[in-house]
Write a structure and sequence with these properties.
The chain is of the alpha+beta class. The protein contains nine helices and 19 strands. It has two domains: 256 residues, Aminopeptidase; 116 residues, Alpha-Beta Plaits (2-Layer Sandwich).
Length: 379
């Protein structure tokens, strides 16, 4: 039997802070190749990505797993009680950066698949698409893997992303979609002057504050069948002005919008442009706007795939998982254009935190869930 805890520990010891590979994907390639998987690099833009397949290429029953081995920076290493890349075990917990997000998830589905094909070789294929660029810009990670698959005739029938999905208890939540994400950056440009003589200046702050108030108090929607209401958060306002007697010439601000399927990135962008133009004209100032859309909202409607995963989760954890679209973005936003995709993984409470850790029992439980999913899918 392939031990997912040992494999998780070996992955944690690879300091693969995004976008460094640091041996993590090399370890997985060696492990999978030894188990009979055909492996290939799908690198792009200096990012290393691993594609692996067991079984016939292009089979109409091909189960895919997606995940990443890159991790966020450690931060203040002095604040850690455990070495961030030491993979130490204490009190039934395995510590280290990436322990939760998401080296344990990768180890669990790799271990489940290796044992599954050894015990009951299926009539079909299993694919792994594992990236080193999920925690970074995500421009040369899963998208590069999907491009590689398109160029080489590879295809997943369905895909499961192993990101942490459970808020508090193992097995309580499956993600069947995600909200879209958009960040807008505003720069209001005026004329600098003395604060005692405001008529000789053109203060860019009042128009930008007015604009931000209009945006923040606008109700985008009331939610949809599978999504909570869309949200807008003001995340920064900056003048760079340390003087109290100077009206600044420029002020910048940014907002982040998480939007549901009542909108698209384009419709949100058009609304932002309209609001910006109206305020700029009312105050006779220039307000520059730049927009970055990180992903559109999407959903895999409840059905065969979510039922398959939910049944396996309940069998191994005793909980009936909620089908959710909450949380941030994930690489499922790229896969949804390739095939039906859902997400299921660990409890995510410690991800990205100091002394990130995972319960050893949960790693083994996650492998059992993935094993049951494969057994049911290929039955």
């Amino acid at each position: 039997m392939t031990d997912p805890v040992e494999l998780t520990a070996r992955l944690i010891r690879c300091p693969s802070v995004t976008p460094k590979e640091a041996g993590a994907l090399t370890l997985l390639r060696e492990t999978l190749a030894a188990a009979g998987f055909d492996c290939a690099w799908a690198d792009r833009g200096g990012v290393r990505n691993l594609f692996a397949r067991w079984g016939q290429r292009g089979h109409d029953r091909t189960f895919g797993f997606n995940g990443h081995t890159d991790v966020v920076p450690v931060g203040d290493e002095g604040a850690w009680k455990m070495p961030p890349f030491g993979a130490q075990i204490k009190g039934g917990l395995l510590y280290g950066r990436g322990a939760t997000d998401m080296k344990s998830g990768v180890a669990a589905f790799v271990a489940a698949a290796i044992d599954f094909i050894a015990e009951t070789p299926p009539d079909g294929a299993i694919i792994f698409a594992i990236t080193g660029d999920e925690e970074g810009d995500a421009t040369d990670g899963t998208t590069a893997l999907l491009e590689h698959m398109d160029q080489t005739g590879e295809k997943m029938s369905v895909c499961l992303v192993g990101e942490p999905t459970c808020p508090n208890k193992m097995g309580e939540m499956i993600k069947i979609g995600r909200r879209g994400s958009l960040t807008a950056h505003f720069t209001a440009i005026g004329v600098q002057g003395h604060s005692a003589y405001p008529h000789r200046a053109k203060n860019p702050l009042p128009p930008l504050v007015r604009l931000l108030d209009r945006l923040a108090t606008h109700q985008l929607d009331n939610g949809t069948d599978h999504f909570d209401p869309s949200t807008l958060a003001i995340v920064t306002i900056d003048t760079g002005n340390a003087a109290t007697n100077v009206i600044p010439a420029e002020v910048k601000a940014s907002v982040n919008i998480r939007f549901n399927d009542a909108h698209s990135g384009d419709s949100i962008s058009n609304w932002l442009r309209k609001e910006t133009l109206e305020v700029a004209e009312a105050f006779d100032v220039e307000i520059a706007l730049s927009i970055k859309i990180s992903g559109e909202s999407f959903i895999t409607p409840p059905g065969t795939l979510s039922d398959l995963v939910a049944t396996a989760v309940k069998a191994e954890t005793g909980l009936t998982p909620v089908l959710s679209t909450t949380g941030g973005t994930s690489d499922a936003r790229f896969i949804k254009d390739h095939c039906p995709v859902v997400e299921f993984g660990l409890v995510g409470q410690s991800m990205h935190q100091v002394d990130e850790h995972v319960e050893i029992a949960h790693i083994n439980q996650l492998k059992a869930v993935y094993s049951r999913i494969l057994q049911s899918y290929f039955a």
